[in-house]
């Protein structure tokens, strides 16, 4: 049992209610690319009404597969008013001086990129995953279902490794709002099934450490999108620090941007795809020892969302 799962089990035994993490600060809503935020994203993310209270009983085990039960329990935020999925951006400021930081990696592959993969373009990044293991950095991987289908062995390897937790980045990596950096758009009626299809892809690949967190492609969302995905039981997860690794060629610049942005409780967005983020591994190899030197501990998003976590 992993550390976070053990904590969860203990919390369950003690009947502790997870509360007090309902508001987050931070800029958030920027982008998971080198692009500018959609106005709707930051406005929505900034609204406390959209961030619910943590629930000790997660809205679920979206994959519904084997392994469901106490070991899979992770904190989630309850939907807000109007049935909108809650949005988490970083640990609540009340967490105070805990110098924790969560690195998250978007394993991007878009539904229409199959032909490019067939021609040899690589949307995976085994070197990055190996570096995270070597450096022993607990991390959250936001994987698209299409990525898991293209790289099932890697998806399973990540998905059974307690160092990681696997979260949902949609199946298609198509946009959930009408204007999101030129991405093809998912119809509102298809959003829920797009999320569920990713969870099914994880299950089929053998991923076991799935968590009910969802990151919108491009970080683009609005109320309609939050309402559409809420029935799947996910908590939407954004970030407060943009790594800037998408399409970057200078690892040092990415590392400096991360180091300049991280505060206690921060949530950093980076990528796990060589195609669009070729220097992420090198940046991580710089960032990790430096943040540790500054006293930071690396945690997963589920740990960051857990109010009693160190
Ligand atoms: Zn993405």
Key traits:
alpha/beta; 9-stranded parallel beta sheet; 310 residues; disordered N terminus; binds zinc ion; single chain
Description:
The protein is α/β, with parallel strands linked by helices and 310 residues long. The chain has a single domain (3-305), classed as TIM Barrel, CATH 3.20.20. Helices cover 33% and strands 14% of the residues. The protein is built from eleven helices and eleven strands. It has helices at 3-14, 39-45, 114-118, 126-134, 145-150, 152-159, 188-205, 223-229, 251-261, 280-293, 301-305; strands at 54-55, 76-77, 87-88, 100-107, 139-143, 164-168, 210-214, 235-237, 241-242, 266-271, 297-298. The strands form two sheets. Strands 3, 4, 5, 6, 7, 8, 9, 10 and 11 form a nine-stranded parallel sheet that branches. Strands 1-2 form a two-stranded antiparallel sheet. Helix 7 links the parallel strand 6 and strand 7 (210-214). Helix 4 packs parallel to helix 10. The radius of gyration is 17 Å and the shape is globular. The two termini are 19 Å apart. Residues 1-72 have low confidence and may be disordered.
């Amino acid at each position: 049992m992993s550390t976070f799962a053990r904590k969860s089990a203990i919390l369950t035994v003690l009947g502790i209610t997870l509360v007090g993490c309902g508001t987050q600060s931070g800029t958030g809503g920027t982008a998971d690319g080198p692009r500018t935020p959609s106005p709707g994203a930051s406005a929505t993310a900034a609204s406390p009404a959209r961030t619910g209270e943590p629930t000790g009983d997660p809205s679920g085990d979206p994959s519904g597969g084997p392994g469901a039960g106490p070991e899979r329990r992770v904190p989630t935020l309850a939907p807000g008013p109007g049935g909108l999925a809650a949005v988490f951006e970083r640990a609540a400021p009340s967490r105070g001086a805990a110098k924790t930081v969560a690195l998250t990696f978007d394993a991007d592959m878009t539904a229409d990129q199959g032909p490019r993969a067939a021609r040899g373009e690589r949307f995976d990044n085994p070197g990055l995953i190996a570096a995270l293991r070597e450096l022993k950095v607990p991390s959250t991987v936001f994987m698209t279902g299409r990525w898991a289908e293209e790289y099932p062995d890697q998806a399973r390897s990540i998905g059974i490794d307690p160092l990681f937790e696997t979260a949902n980045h949609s199946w298609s990596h198509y946009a959930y709002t009408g204007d999101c950096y030129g991405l093809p758009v998912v119809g509102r009626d298809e959003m829920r099934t797009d999320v569920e299809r990713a969870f099914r892809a994880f299950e089929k690949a053998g991923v076991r450490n799935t968590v009910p967190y969802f990151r919108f492609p491009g970080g683009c969302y609005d109320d309609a999108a939050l309402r559409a995905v809420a029935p799947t039981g996910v908590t939407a997860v954004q970030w407060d620090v943009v790594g800037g690794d998408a399409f970057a060629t200078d690892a040092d610049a990415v590392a400096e941007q991360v180091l300049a942005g991280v505060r206690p409780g921060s949530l950093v967005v980076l990528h796990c795809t060589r195609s669009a983020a070729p220097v992420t591994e090198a940046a991580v190899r710089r960032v990790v020892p430096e943040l540790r030197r500054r006293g930071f501990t690396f945690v997963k998003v589920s740990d960051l969302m857990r109010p009693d976590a160190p």
